[in-house]
Amino acid sequence: MKKPLLAAAAALPLIAASPVPDPLAASFRGHVSFLADDLLEGRGLGSRGHEIAANYIAQHFARLGLQPAGTGGFFQRIRFAESRFASERESALLDLGGTRLTLENGVGLVVSPGNSSGAEDVSGEMVFVGYGLQDKSQGIDDFAGLDLKGKYAVVLSGAPDGMNSEIAAHLARVSKAVGAEAAGAIGVITVRTLKEADRLPWDKYASRARLPRRLVLDPAGQPLGDGAGLKVRAAIDDAAATALFAAAPMDFAAVRAAAQKGLVKGFALPGRFSVRRATTVETISSPNVLALLPGTDKALASEIVVISAHSDHVGMKVGAKPGEDAMYNGAMDNAAGTATLLEAATALVKNPPRRSVLFLATTAEESGLLGADYFSRFPTVDVKRIVADVNIDMPILTCDFGDVVAFGGERSTIGAVVAQAARAERLGLSPDPQPEEAVFTRSDHYPFVRKGVPSVFLKTGWTDTSGGQSCKEAERKFRLNNYHEVSDQLDLPFDWAAAAKWTRLNIGIIRNLANAKAAPRWYQGDYFGTAFAPDAPKAKKP
Question: How far apart are CA 61 and CA 68, in angstroms?
Answer without folding.
Answer: 8
